[in-house]
Write a structure and sequence with these properties.
This protein has 19 helices and no strands. With about 525 residues, the chain is mainly α. It has a domain of about 240 residues. Helix 3 packs parallel to helix 6 and helix 12 runs antiparallel to helix 14. The two termini are about 40 Å apart.
Length: about 525
């Protein structure tokens, strides 16, 4: 439910864990296959909705009097802060409610007791985080250089409050394996959110209208869920330490995870505000955020991989099947590197293709994509390493790697943006370049730590041969991309698609697939015919 970066991988993992539980005989409509299908469908619509907002707003803001990129930058800055806190609330609350609702099984007294305990806990979180956010909204707006947007920050606080209560009802549906009902609520919320946000901006209400629409959508879906799902009887309470401790642990990890890839926007604004002024710093935020949204698309598509690998590796490690565990890890990382590598290599080779699809005020995005495209290839693999570690029962390793990566990012952003040892940036291009470079270095560091830990535990990680071949392909595509010059968007898009196909041709020529894999691929093609 973070709403413009698509769903978080933690929620996907929890959904997968619940989908794989055996449903009761009387609940045929929510069988394993049906549950997986409807939840996946809802998540796909969620991703489409996020893309409609992320890529639709630049066009809508461009039609307003003020610089469109600056308005989109203001929206991006508020939404970035909101999403860090909202995912902390959503993931922690969702997983905790789902865990205890399913874990206590047929003991309805304990199920109801846990549900009510989580209700009071999440109500407290909503008041503290959502209410606190609204309370400090004037200060936040002033500190971020947009005092006129205090109401937008207050609306964002309303979103946080609504989420805190909404996840109790949705977590209960998930834990009870009512997947179709859960999917309907998720899809309904996505539809409400897209309609109200884009509708408010289309009517000329600007950034404040966007967050007003966001808050209204969240409050409406929360009220509907409260009325239709409800809480039921009070039941028997469980030890608070047991119930609340799990939620706090998941929230802590989610906060760290979100800071890893959202710290750049958080730290860019104050530095840019001091050196570029309000208008240019807002424009910078819009340009850089749009580059991030484009670069994150390949990662978002791979979230579905966790639906498959999480339970498989969990089962293999529980059964102490080391050979199968190594096979799952190696194959997952290899195919992820190839698939995401193809998309990122194209963005890296022809960034002007994507930039040309947006209003001219986003032209500097080309310089950001040169760094953010490879950065999010590293991030995708880094994220999968942590997923593999957690599915293998090594959550503490994933947490340590996450904290270390955030610490490094903080240090690098301070050194490059705020330290007196370095010259301050003086243009949008310099800022997006610095931010992209730090993101690439940080994600590469996290990936290296994750691969090292997987190698320690299982003796296998990312295949070296595949890594070298992907690097060679990317370098060749970049060299070819330097020779492509055109003002035609159609020619550039066709060139980008051709480079993607060429990536796989070069991999094939370099011997990425052995004879067995080639034979299996030909057999599948023959069966389809």
């Amino acid at each position: 439910m973070d709403h413009h970066d698509t769903d978080t991988n933690h929620e996907a993992k929890e959904n997968q864990a619940k989908v794989l539980d055996t449903p009761s005989k009387t609940n045929k409509e929510d069988s394993v296959g049906g549950g997986l299908l409807v939840i996946t469908g809802a998540k796909l619509w969620f991703m489409v909705g996020g893309a409609l907002i992320a890529f639709g707003l630049p066009y809508l803001f461009a039609g307003m009097g003020k610089d469109g990129a600056a308005l989109y930058g203001q929206y991006s800055d508020i939404n970035n802060t909101l999403s860090i806190l909202s995912m902390m609330i959503v993931t922690g609350g969702m997983q905790a409610v789902s865990k205890w609702t399913s874990q206590f099984g047929q003991d309805q007294d304990r199920v109801q007791g846990a549900l009510w305990q989580m209700w009071w806990f999440m109500l407290s979180v909503g008041i503290l985080v959502g209410g606190g956010f609204m309370l400090v909204s004037p200060w936040l707006a002033q500190a971020r250089g947009v005092p006129e947007l205090s109401s937008a920050y207050q609306a964002a606080g309303g979103v946080l409050f609504a989420y805190a209560l909404y996840v109790v009802f949705i977590g209960a549906l998930n834990g009870r394996k009512h997947f179709k009902a859960q999917a309907l609520y998720d899809a309904g919320f996505t539809t409400l959110k897209v309609s109200l946000i884009l509708g408010a901006v289309s009517l000329g209400f600007g950034v404040t209208g966007a967050f007003g629409g966001f808050a209204l959508a969240a409050l409406l879906i929360m009220a509907i869920a409260a009325f239709k799902v409800g809480l039921g009887s009070k039941g028997q309470s469980s030890p608070k330490r047991q119930i609340y401790g799990y939620a706090l642990q998941v929230m802590a990890y989610t906060l760290v995870f979100n800071l890893i890839f959202k710290l750049d926007l958080l730290m860019l604004k104050p530095a840019a505000l001091a050196s570029l002024g309000a208008m240019e710093s807002d424009r910078l935020m819009g340009i850089y955020n749009l580059a991030l949204q484009v670069s994150r698309l390949p990662w978002q598509v791979t979230i579905a991989v966790t639906f498959v690998i999480f339970p498989l590796l969990s089962e293999a490690t529980f059964a102490q099947d080391e050979e199968k565990s190594r096979q799952y890890i190696s194959q997952t990382l290899r195919y992820l590197l190839i698939l995401v590598g193809a998309a990122c290599a194209g963005l890296f080779a022809l960034p002007q293709t994507v930039t040309g699809l947006f209003p001219s005020s986003y032209s500097e995005m080309t310089h950001a994509l040169l760094w953010t495209a490879p950065a999010y290839l590293c991030f995708t693999l880094f994220n999968m390493c942590n997923t593999l570690l957690m599915s293998a029962g090594r959550a503490s390793s994933a947490f340590v790697i996450g904290v270390s990566t955030v610490g490094l990012a903080l240090g690098l952003y301070w050194l490059t943006l705020y330290s007196t040892w370095t010259e301050p940036a003086t243009s949008v291009i310099e800022y997006v370049t610095i931010a992209g470079q730090v993101a690439l270095f940080t994600f590469a560091f996290g990936l290296a730590m994750g691969l090292f830990r997987l190698k320690q535990l299982f003796g296998v990680a990312l295949p070296l041969g595949t890594s070298i071949r992907v690097l060679v392909c990317s370098a060749l595509l970049w060299l070819i991309g330097q020779q492509i010059h055109s003002d035609s968007k159609i020619i550039l898009l066709l060139s980008l698609a051709s480079l993607g196909l060429l990536f796989f041709v070069i991999l094939y020529a370099l011997g990425e697939w052995d004879s067995t894999e080639k034979a299996n691929f030909k057999a599948r093609i023959s069966r389809k015919k």
